[in-house]
Amino acid sequence: VFPNRFLGQNFTIAPWVAQKLVEYANIQPTDVVLDAGAGTGFLAHFVSKKCKEVLAVEKDPRLVSILREHVPSPNIRVIAGDLFRTQIPHFDKVVSAPSYGISTNFLIWLFNRDFNVAALVLQKEFAGRLVAPVGAEEYGWLTVIAYYNVNVEILDAVPKHVFYPAPKVDSVIVRLEKVARDPRVAKNHDAFIKLVRSLFVHRNRKVANAIKPFIRSEALRDNKEKTLAVPFAEKRVRALLPENFAVIANELYS
Question: Which of 11, 25, 153, 179 has the lowest CB atom count within 10 Å?
Answer without folding.
Answer: 179
